[in-house]
Amino acid sequence: MKRKEVISIIIGTFCMASATNTVFQPFGIVTGGFGGLGIIFDKLWGIPLWMTNVTLNVPLFLLAFRYKTKKFMARTICSDIMLSVFLGVLPRFSFFPKDFYVNLILGAILMGIGLGMVMKERTSTGGTDLMAFLLHVVLPHMSIPMLLGMLDGVIVLFGAFIFGVEKTSYALLVIYGITKITDSVVEGFQVSKLVYVISGHQEQISDQILFRLGRGATKLSSVGAYTGQSSETLMCIVSKKEVPVLKKIVMETDPKAFVIISDTRETIGEGFVDYTQ
């Protein structure tokens, strides 16, 4: 593995273990996964979290070697080892022992950032996502996300019997927060805008976009469904802060132009994210 990948995995698993040891375990918040099972087993039988993580993942790794690439498995084993070490080494305490809600927010942020950094390196820490993949081999008619949701759902439901419905309700909110933060880390925080401009002054508008924003544009052939007339639609990707300038350009050039603006999940290329660097 590259140095950058190793650093990301170390920082990511450290954040995940910190969230588990300082927030989720002390407050009984079961968010699914083997970490959630570890919290349950620790409550019932006093089994350390790191031991549960290692014990449950070892058989999964042995089974997964048959279906996953060696590179992926090497990263996953490395991630799981680092997570288990941090779970065993980091002390259990609460940053804000008297403020339950601040702790939940902090835990969601730490877990979301940590999980996002690990996933961004195209790996995982094993757990229910790897189990879902293996179950998909046996149950191909069910999607992996569906199987993952079912597995985590069972763990969260199990947690409700141990820690109560109230804690489980908070856990569901935390899961939502973790998911949103993880997506932001994996996909990036910069939101780009996809703009379509339908106008009879395409040349003037595209020239102004290039001159004033330094952005390129693409002309798409289109046909009006009502008029049946052929025309061109201008497509352009800009940053969020550039949208007001682009709208001003269009309105100054053609007040009757039809403009569509929407969010883009990810933009790869010059001026945005360049994965070749």
From TrEMBL:
It comes from the Bacteria. Keywords: Cell membrane, Membrane, Transmembrane, Transmembrane helix. Its main location: membrane. The keyword Flavoprotein does not apply. The chain crosses the membrane at residues 7-27, 47-65, 100-118, 154-176. It is found in: Cell membrane. Residues 215-269 form the DUF2179 domain. InterPro entries: DUF2179, N-reg_PII/ATP_PRibTrfase_C, UPF0750_membrane, YitT. It is a multi-pass membrane protein. GO terms for cellular component: plasma membrane. PANTHER family: UPF0750 MEMBRANE PROTEIN YITT (PTHR33545:SF5), UPF0750 MEMBRANE PROTEIN YITT-RELATED (PTHR33545). This is DUF2179 domain-containing protein.
